[in-house]
Structure formats: structure tokens, C-alpha cells
Design goal:
The complex is a heterodimer of chains A (455) and B (71). Chain A has 455 residues and is mainly alpha-helical. Chain A is built from 18 helices and no strands. Chain B has one domain. In chain B, helix 1 runs antiparallel to helix 2. Classes of the chains: A mainly alpha (455), B mainly alpha (71).
Chain lengths: 455, 71
């Protein structure tokens, strides 16, 4: 039964050119393979898209409830309780995902990592959509989002003293740069497909000033943009860390380690998400030929080092605080190691250790390598690092230095709806983009193949 | 002291129009023939277009939210 299903799917994707719709006959067989998501629509698409739209509508209802009734419908409280909760957890998490996307895309182009080219665009999208969701999480977290423009109005006055302003600036710059980077590197693909696919009219609209042969110039721009991507990435994740790390008034936050800790966490989360994305696209569109096992082997090795390094950071923080830390800091750590947050804390550490071991087995024992293992380990990392963000944000807020009683935090249905909804929106954006634009860098892949044939 | 007579969102309109116009002006300048190498111009123009669109969006968003939030 399974074989029949697989065969029919392959036939659907790989049918001869003469049997394909008229517009497809203008495409080469290779282009047809790269453009499968645009040319064919599976049943799953018609099931998942309406389901996601229903979820998004639910989110809008929950958000409307919060906007009209105020933040009292959430579990967020002040001064006793947590003023930041799931929304800020999601913000830090999505900012982290955005790290590796653009880093991978830039690394691939700078160091000419030919095996990884197929991942470049999906990695860039992970960056852009995650940054959008991070921004949305911030807007959701404030009671009066109609006053958000005050950040811009007061920008010059607050710039020297507010890490929040630095972070807004970093997110704005990173988002603008990431979209520009994607747009510029995608121009050649869009130009190639004008008149060949049904979305050609849209591509034409998005190609102002295009002229044949601009590829050489684009390659130069992309090269320099790739170099600039790295410092921008480090700047952004460090500033997110500084939102917490520069606050003296909260136990568990004031720390020199938070800048690099957040950068490392971002690389680990982002790379893991790219592994998961690559596996999903590979399976869904039978792209085994383009996203080969060597890609997962390489990422597995890299993630092995990153995950052990992250565990080392957690251990280092643990030792610093528990050995002779101030009493406030110790109270937070006690709540993590043996208090109300202990189940989450040990679940997070357990998931990270198992993920490291799976990456280790995949890397060291070459015969034991499985793509599935890499994907499972990556899922564990993503799960663990979402908990990490929650445990960075909430426990410190519940135990202030000032003589307030210890608070508690119970997220409401509104918060869970908005948090889940943000994930739904990100998946929806991915699916719509994949349906409308080439998710594979067609021109680059074709050029690589031609080079390979000539060599 | 009296509250402002007009609703709050009215105050957002001038900035939305101002920054939105800047955004559209940059878009228009990308679409018409630029003075120097087109691709580079499109690259730089896209950056400025997106920045101004984000800022204009902040005001437009403020106007939208102030319509929903009571008071």
C-alpha cells in the first residue's frame, strides 16, 4: 500500500513535460523539479491551510478580548507576579530562530558551501518570518500597543540609556536587511520564471529596474551583504541578552554571560529549526537529490558542538550562582533546581543532554547516522530552548529583591491562544510563500549543476 | 483640564501620512529610472523603503489599535 502511494506521488511530481500544463512546458525538467511546490498542490495543502486560517481567526478573537478588556485577562501581574510571561518567552524564542537563518544563508554564499545551497532560501525565510513573529509577540505583550510609536518619538532621548530601544533598533535593522537580502538574491529566480509559471505577473511586478545580466552585480551585493550579516546578527542577539543582562534589579538576570549566552542559544535554536525545515521540505517534495544526507551530517556535527557548549554555559551559570551567589539569586536557582520550576528545568536539561547524545552518535559512529535522528535531536533542542527562555523570563520576576511576597504565574487561555497562534501564523506564512515563490534558489542550483557538468 | 475633543486616533493621521508619503516616494523612485546603476539603487532603495514602511506601519498600527481599545 505504501509503495503504491509513494509511486503515485512520484509520478505526480515527475510526469513527463509533454503531459504537463502548457505553462510548464516552457520549463526545463530540472526547473520543474525545483518548482514542485508552485506547480503542484497536494491534498495536505487544502487541509492544513483552512485549519491554520481557523487558528488565526481564533487568535484575532483572543487578541480582541485582550485589547478591549486589558491585560487583566492574562496571568500577567505587577508588582507581585510576573509582568513578562509567555509573550516575552515567545519573543526571545523567535528572535533566536532568526539567528541561524541568515547566518546559514550568508555562510553558504561566503564559503561556497555547495552542498547546502538548497537550504539558503528556507533559512532566510526562517529569519524573516521569525523576526515578524517576534515583533508581533512584543505588540501582543503590551496593554496599549496604540502607543508603540513612542519608541520612535523618544528614540534619540532613550538611546543612551535603554537596552529596549537598542533591541528595537537591532530588530528593525535586522528585519529590513534580511528582507532586502532575500529580495535581491531572489530577483534572478523571479526574472527566470516570468511567463513560465502562473505567478509570473507578480514576479514581473516585483522586478523594477531589472535588466538581463544583472546577476554579476547581484552576486557582488550578496557577497558584501553576507559579510555584513554576521555583525548584525551578533549585535541583535547580544542586545536581546542585554535586555535581561543589564538589569540590576532582578535576581538571575544581571550577568556578563547573557550576551554570548543568547548568541549561542540563538545559533543552536536557529540551526535546529533549519534542520527540521530541510527535513520537512525534503520529504514533502521528494527533494532527496538536492538536500542530501551530507547536509544533515554536517549540521549534526555542528549542533553537537553547539549543544555541549550550551550545556557548559548552563553549568557555568549554575556554579557561579550556587557556590556563593547573593541570596536573591540563590532563591531563583532553588526554584529551578528543586522548587516549582524544577520539572521544567530538568526536562529542559534532559532534552538537551539527549539531543547532544543523539548528535554525538550521528557524528562519531558513521554507520549509525540517520537523518531521522538528527531531526529528532533538533526537535528536542527547539523544545528545550523554548523552556530555557521561559525559565529565564518568569522565575526572576516572581522573586524580586524588593520586599514583596513571592508571586505566581498562571498563563490564561488568551495567552496560550496568542502564543500558539503566532506559531500558526509562521507556518501559514511559510506555506503561502512556498506556494507563490520558489523556495529553492533555482538559478544558483542550476549554475552549480552546469559547473559540475563542465568540470 | 479638558480631554481633547477629537478621538485619539485622529492625532496619528498626520504622521501616518507624512511617513507613508516618504515610503511611497522611495517606492516611486525605485520604479522610475534611477540615476545610477539600477541594481545597486534597487538594493539601497529597498532598504530605505522597508525602513520607512516599518515606521509608517507603527503609526498606522497605533491608529488601528486606538480604534479598538476603549477610552
Amino acid at each position: 500500500m505504501d509503495q503504491i502511494t509513494i509511486k503515485s506521488r512520484e509520478e505526480r511530481f515527475l510526469q513527463p513535460i509533454h503531459k504537463q500544463p502548457k505553462s510548464e512546458s516552457k520549463l526545463s525538467p530540472r526547473e520543474v523539479q525545483f518548482l514542485r511546490p508552485i506547480l503542484r498542490t497536494g491534498k495536505a495543502f487544502y487541509v492544513v491551510i483552512p485549519a491554520l486560517i481557523v487558528l488565526v481567526l481564533w487568535v484575532l478573537y483572543a487578541w480582541y478580548t485582550q485589547l478591549t478588556q486589558g491585560l487583566s485577562v492574562t496571568g500577567l501581574r505587577t508588582p507581585v507576579g510576573a509582568i513578562w510571561g509567555l509573550y516575552i518567552t515567545n519573543f526571545v524564542f523567535f528572535v533566536a530562530i532568526s539567528a541561524a537563518g541568515i547566518a546559514i544563508a550568508s555562510g553558504i554564499r561566503l564559503f561556497k558551501l555547495k552542498d547546502y545551497i538548497a537550504l539558503a532560501r528556507m533559512a532566510e525565510l526562517a529569519t524573516i518570518f521569525s523576526l515578524m513573529m517576534a515583533g508581533m509577540s512584543i505588540v501582543m505583550s503590551i496593554g496599549r500597543p496604540d502607543r508603540l510609536f513612542n519608541l520612535i518619538l523618544n528614540f534619540p532621548a532613550r538611546l543612551p540609556s535603554s537596552p529596549l530601544i537598542w533591541d528595537v533598533m537591532a530588530v528593525f535593522v535586522y528585519l529590513v536587511f534580511a528582507i532586502t537580502y532575500l529580495y535581491i538574491e531572489m530577483r534572478e529566480d523571479m526574472a527566470r520564471l516570468v511567463g513560465k509559471v502562473k505567478w509570473g505577473w507578480l514576479y514581473k511586478l516585483l522586478l523594477p529596474g531589472y535588466r538581463i545580466g544583472e546577476r554579476h552585480r547581484i552576486e557582488k551585493i550578496v557577497f558584501w551583504a553576507s559579510i555584513f550579516n554576521f555583525p548584525i546578527m551578533f549585535m541583535m542577539h547580544t542586545t536581546v541578552g542585554w535586555i535581561f543582562g543589564l538589569q540590576v534589579g532582578r535576581p538571575g538576570w544581571y550577568s556578563t554571560i547573557f550576551g554570548p549566552y543568547f548568541v549561542l542559544g540563538a545559533i543552536l535554536t536557529g540551526m535546529s529549526v533549519v534542520v527540521i525545515l530541510a527535513a520537512i521540505y525534503r520529504k514533502a517534495f521528494q527533494w532527496e537529490e538536492f538536500i542530501r544526507p551530507v547536509v544533515f551530517k554536517g549540521l549534526s556535527k555542528f549542533l553537537m558542538w553547539m549543544s555541549i557548549l550550551y550545556l557548559y554555559f548552563i553549568l557555568s551559570e549554575f556554579m557561579t550562582v550556587t557556590f556563593a551567589g547573593p541570596s536573591g539569586e540563590q532563591a531563583v536557582w532553588e526554584s529551578l533546581t528543586g522548587g516549582e520550576f524544577a520539572p521544567l528545568f530538568w526536562l529542559q536539561n534532559g532534552a538537551l543532554v539527549i539531543a547532544f547524545l543523539l548528535f554525538f552518535v550521528n557524528t562519531v559512529f558513521k554507520k549509525a547516522f540517520r537523518i531521522g535522528t538528527t531531526v529528532i535531536a533538533s526537535c528536542l533542542v527547539v523544545f528545550a530552548l523554548w523552556i530555557v527562555r521561559f525559565l529565564i523570563v518568569v522565575p526572576s520576576l516572581l522573586r524580586p529583591f524588593l520586599p514583596f511576597p513571592t508571586g505566581s504565574y498562571n498563563p490564561s487561555w488568551v495567552e496560550w491562544s496568542l502564543v500558539g497562534g503566532v506559531f500558526a501564523i509562521e507556518i501559514l506564512l511559510f506555506m503561502v510563500f512556498t506556494k507563490v515563490f520558489p523556495i529553492m534558489p533555482v538559478t544558483e542550483l542550476m549554475a552549480e549543476e552546469e559547473e559540475g557538468n563542465h568540470a | 483640564m479638558h480631554e481633547a475633543a477629537s478621538p485619539m486616533w485622529v492625532g496619528y493621521i498626520p504622521f501616518t501620512i507624512l511617513v507613508g508619503s516618504l515610503c511611497l516616494a522611495i517606492l516611486a523612485s525605485i520604479l522610475v529610472k534611477p540615476f545610477f546603476a539600477r541594481t545597486t539603487f534597487v538594493f539601497v532603495g529597498t532598504i530605505f523603503f522597508l525602513l520607512s514602511a516599518l515606521i509608517a506601519g507603527t503609526w498606522a498600527g497605533g491608529m488601528f489599535f486606538s480604534l479598538i481599545i476603549p477610552g
